[in-house]
Amino acid sequence: MQNAPGPVLGHGDTVPVRHRYIAGADGWFRVIRPYRIVQVGAERGGMTEIRMTEHQAQLTAVVRERVPVKDLPQFFARALHQALEAMQSQGHHPVGPPFSLYHGMPTDAVDVEAGFPVDGPITAVDGVAPGSLPAGRVVEATHVGPYDTLPQTYEEITGYMKEQGLTPSSDMWESYLSDPAQEPDPATWRTQIFWPAT
């Protein structure tokens, strides 16, 4: 959804049961034991197959704000740092890559929450709140390439939904599977998109 880089982490096609993260001095969050990234797609952006899957509900720790689109990179860096600190202070850990959940389609600003899937319920503290990713049917695709080519993948997803007679939710989320600090070539960056549909 966003066109500017967000903090992202590497792993393979299957999300591991548990991740452990550290925060770098440059503001990026890195997995202590990086998972191998399977490279697919074209040099200027592509995606894996679009498919319908069943998503299980997942507890999260998030910061939610209405953010000008141009300020999303700064928001992501701050929100993920806050979420990680809140989890660790309460004895919790991330169980998946960082994500952003968008409430409604963006204009010049967007209602967005950013954070991590977490291993148990947290208590709200310092702007970080407990949340959840919803259970149910989602259209899933993995975008491969720079963030500014994400709209191409969203167009493909909306086309798939029309072909399948699906009605998209007003909310969708992205999980960031690659760390640009570890993978400087934007052509390899992977963003997993989840869009609930009925």
Which key terms come to mind for this protein?
2 helices; 198 residues; alpha+beta; 11 strands; globular; nine-stranded antiparallel β-sheet; disordered N terminus; two-stranded antiparallel sheet
Please characterize this protein's 3D structure:
The strands form two sheets. Strands 3, 4, 5, 6, 7, 8, 9, 10 and 11 form a nine-stranded antiparallel sheet that branches. A hairpin with a 5-residue loop joins strand 1 and strand 2. The chain contains two helices and eleven strands, in the order βββββαββββαββ. It is globular, with a radius of gyration of 16 Å. It has helices at 72-89, 150-164, and strands spanning 21-23, 29-31, 46-47, 51-55, 58-68, 99-103, 109-117, 129-133, 136-144, 171-176, 190-196.
